[in-house]
């Protein structure tokens, strides 16, 4: 399974310039009862973001140019907020990775004073991911061409705050369009209802050696029943393919070890 941190992403941000943390910076989050709570950075790692609410709800209004929504996560078995299709893509990447155990959308806000008479500055990162090895990875999603000076400064402040807390920070850009299209297709089969232990065993045996998707699916039985299970295996990483090329009957698939057992 592809590492979601380094998946096909030709739109790569330049390195973030290190900055000093602004004086008076605080982290605020919404608890399970949607109450706003503020903590110092030194105490932020104790927050259970698996139970918190999104700090900022996806807006919806006539004429808006982005496409927000709620993603049902196979990882958390709950809905995660996103504010654009780019965010949704990176949410899908993390949701597919067996090493990711927790996903929080719009998880918190960092705010800091800007001087007398000015409103405080603030930034709400897009996601916070938790992994099996205990890491916390804060992620902002923005096309490189829309990464202006103001955004890059806020990203630099967020990166500095994450270092104090002991978290990682990353900027994510636009994915390869073919890769993204394949991932959207497979995400339609992410729900456990597409699993079938008997048919999965048959498919894993057939794909013990690399074979074509189309003709092998026919050998396994009724394609209407077989293909959803096969795409579910592809989503889970039990069967792999070159997803940088369009997915179809001529795609070569091969079974691999269960990523949950490798993690």
Describe this protein's structure:
The protein has 263 residues and is α+β, with helices and mostly antiparallel strands. 29% of the residues lie in helices and 21% in strands. The protein has a four-stranded antiparallel sheet with strand order 2-1-6-7, covered by helices on one side. A four-stranded mixed sheet has the order 5-8-9-10, with helices on both faces. Strand 3 and strand 4 form a beta hairpin. Helix 1 packs across helix 3 (177-187).
Describe the structure using short key phrases.
263 residues, four-stranded mixed β-sheet, 13 strands, elongated
Order of helices and strands: EEEEHEEEEEHEHHEHHEEH
Overall pLDDT score: 92
What's the shape? elongated
Cα distance, first to last residue?
11 Å
Class by helix and strand content? alpha+beta
Helix content: 25-40%
SSE layout and pairing:
Blueprint: E1 26-30, E2 36-39, E3 69-73, E4 78-82, H1 85-96, E5 100-105, E6 109-112, E7 121-123, E8 127-131, E9 136-141, H2 149-165, E10 168-172, H3 177-187, H4 197-206, E11 211-212, H5 213-220, H6 223-236, E12 239-240, E13 252-255, H7 259-262
Helix pairs in contact: 1-3
């Amino acid at each position: 399974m592809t590492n979601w941190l380094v998946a096909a992403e030709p739109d790569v941000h330049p390195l973030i310039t290190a900055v000093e943390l602004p004086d008076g910076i605080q982290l605020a989050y919404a608890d399970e009862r949607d109450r706003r709570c503020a903590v110092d950075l030194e105490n932020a790692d104790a927050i259970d973001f698996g139970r918190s609410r999104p700090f900022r709800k996806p807006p919806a209004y006539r004429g808006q140019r982005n496409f927000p929504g709620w993603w049902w996560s196979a990882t958390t078995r709950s809905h995660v907020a996103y504010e654009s299709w780019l965010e949704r893509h990176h949410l899908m990447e993390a949701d597919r990775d067996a090493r990711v155990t927790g996903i929080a959308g719009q998880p918190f806000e960092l705010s800091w004073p800007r001087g007398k008479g000015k409103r405080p500055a603030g930034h709400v990162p897009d996601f916070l991911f938790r992994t099996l090895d205990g890491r916390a990875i804060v992620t902002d999603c923005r096309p490189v061409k829309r990464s202006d000076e103001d955004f890059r400064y806020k990203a630099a402040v967020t990166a500095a705050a994450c270092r104090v807390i002991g978290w990682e920070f990353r900027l994510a850009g636009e994915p390869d369009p073919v890769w993204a299209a394949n991932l959207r297709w497979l995400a339609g089969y992410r729900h456990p209802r597409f699993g079938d232990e008997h048919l999965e065993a048959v498919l894993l045996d057939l794909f013990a050696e690399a074979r074509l998707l189309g003709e092998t699916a026919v050998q396994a039985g009724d394609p209407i029943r077989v293909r959803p299970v096969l795409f579910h295996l592809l989503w889970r990483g039990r069967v792999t393919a070159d997803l940088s090329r369009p997915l179809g009957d001529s795609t070569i698939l091969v079974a691999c070890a269960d990523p949950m057992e490798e993690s």
